[in-house]
Amino acid sequence: MSRSILVIDLDACLGCHACATVCKQENNVGLGSNWNKVLEIGPTGIFPDLEMYYLPVLCQQCDNPTCVSVCPTGASYKRQDGVILVNHDRCIGCQYCVMACPYGVRQFNHEAGIIEKCTLCAHRADTYEKPACVKACPAQCRM
């Protein structure tokens, strides 16, 4: 099976937050949580020569994910296509995976008592559709 990846052209990102907004809508992500966010870096420099850029931050779908290895119940797992998911039926909300993630992209859902994260829209990938954030990006910086 081929590996699912997401490539982002940082030079093309406009910082519009369309990706973060559509992600919340597509995955019913609650208020205060973000599976996909865009950080504004800067401005740096001295006026009028200022620079700033936008940095999309989401699960990196690591090759050897520590979030999976520290999960005591096996709720965090890696699919054959490389996408890392959380089985909510097995998740006990211990947050070991949250602490192990070097990117800080896992979220604790307080209402459900479980961990949530970007799934690269696995439900769409199963039907060969692009992730919602890729379809919504007006700059087409996500591939």
Please explain how this structure is put together.
- This protein is 20% helix and 23% strand.
- The mean pLDDT is 95.
- It is α+β, with helices and mostly antiparallel strands and 143 residues long.
- The chain has helices spanning 18-27, 66-69, 96-100, 122-125, 132-136; strands at 36-46, 49-58, 76-78, 84-86, 107-109, 114-116.
- The strands form three sheets. The chain has a two-stranded antiparallel ribbon. It has a two-stranded antiparallel sheet with strand order 3-4. Strands 5-6 form a two-stranded antiparallel ribbon.
- The radius of gyration is 16 Å and the shape is globular.
- The longest helix is centred in the N-terminal third of the chain and has 10 residues, at 18-27.
- Strand 3 and strand 4 (84-86) form a beta hairpin.
- The protein is built from five helices and six strands.
